[in-house]
Design a protein that fits this description.
The chain is mainly alpha-helical. It has 23 helices and four strands. The longest helix is centred in the N-terminal third of the chain and has 27 residues.
Length: 521
Amino acid sequence: MKQRWLAWPVVALGMVICRAAFLEDVVYNIDETEYAVAAHGLDHGWLPGVDLLGTTKPPGAAVLYNVLFHLFGPSLTAAHVTQTVVMIAAGIAVIELAIALWGLTAALPAAFLWWVLCNSYGLPPEMFSLNVESPGLVLLAPALLLVWKRPQRRWSLIAAGGAVGCAALFRQSYAVFLLPLMVAVWAIRPQRLKRAVGTLAGFALPWVITGIVYASSGGLAWAWDSWVRYPLTYAGDVGVSGFMQALLINGTEFFKQAIMPLCLAVFGCGLLMQRWPSARTKFVAATVVASFLALCAGSRFWGHYWLQVYPALAVTGVYAWLWLNRRFARYRVAVSGAIVIAGLILGMRLPTWRTWDFTAPPRGISYSRLDDEQTEREIGRFAMAHTASDETIVVWGYCPQIYYYARRLPGVRDYLCHYITGYSPGSFDPFTERAPREQGHSMAQRMFIEDLEQRRPKYVFDLVLIDDYPFTFLNYSLRDYPDLASYMRETYLPEGQVGRALVYRRRTAQDTWIPDAKDVE
């Protein structure tokens, strides 16, 4: 028992030491503000994926952000603290899973491997942000533990399936973790079909409830488009060459930064294959396969995608660690030394992030900042000062953080401008694969214009002039969309700039301006 009570503080204190200096109200990942905007929409009866399009995840993250904002106010500090807490909780569940698989001696190795994995790979913003993978893991790891420890108890299997179903409400790729659950269930011969059905029923339950909510609002068709059709398009638009290029670039970075736990995991997988076809080996192998299927599902291999493989790498790495520790004293020293060195590096690396990374923003400045300054905050302040709380705004560009800072809802469903432009972050050829410009995007334009007419946003902020932004709209002028450009000329007045963002105000009865084509950039 002593090893367990030592292992838990290793995870908890290690995570706090690495992250405590960065729990700020700033945007570390642009996805955070997508979920924050969707959370705001929930308070007005808007459904993510129906009333807000472009964010491709089911409503789990929006609901979580909504709860956090109600408890602590609309602050990303709460999100970043929550991310640290859920990763500690997931680490504890992984420790318990390692103990269930390999015995109490696995506790401390699992704790160290989890800590190293969670704090070694990727730019720090990928680690600090509350993206969909983190809350999914805190549901997934206990599900794996439950199905391995209590596969003969029907209610345990239903609960495990329900946990995976809830995890998939954060990120669809977590559904593949039904594979290790089914492997564990199928290893029990008596009534295994009935137990498998119970597990699947548990998985389906949160989705059935979600489906009822969306069906009651007539939003099932849009939900299908947002969570199935659109993500498949997003995943596929890089093509095979883009997939391999992203894997090479980000996989190389992952190997360089997480080399010690990764090598242990690969060695552990090799050792486990020698014990095939034991039930334990099949269960762990299914977990590894599911983890890498989930990683590959998004095709771009962004840093936060890799969180999905951490539990599998930790439990297989622990097996190699224990095997080496039992057999060779010199390997025991080498592995222990590698862990100590990794721990020292992590203990110094993240707390001093802003001193060694030239891309790190100054304290209080967003990592995903617009115009290489704080233009998104400036636009947000302008919108708050010139609109009422029940009025909407529109941002022509991929910049949901403006809506977050403005505390205003989008005046269009396509609030990330994905459908109308075909823009896809990380895509190699978005126009060819998603929404060719030459087709005019008539349906998307009509939807955009209908929303402008129905929600009547007071201001439109056009980011087309801003070129030093990671998600620039420099090549997406409003003039390239004739129907929308015509509507803008007739309905909105140019009203100067905020920074380099063009500002258009909706015309009122008091305005006598005559529209001219040159006024829409």
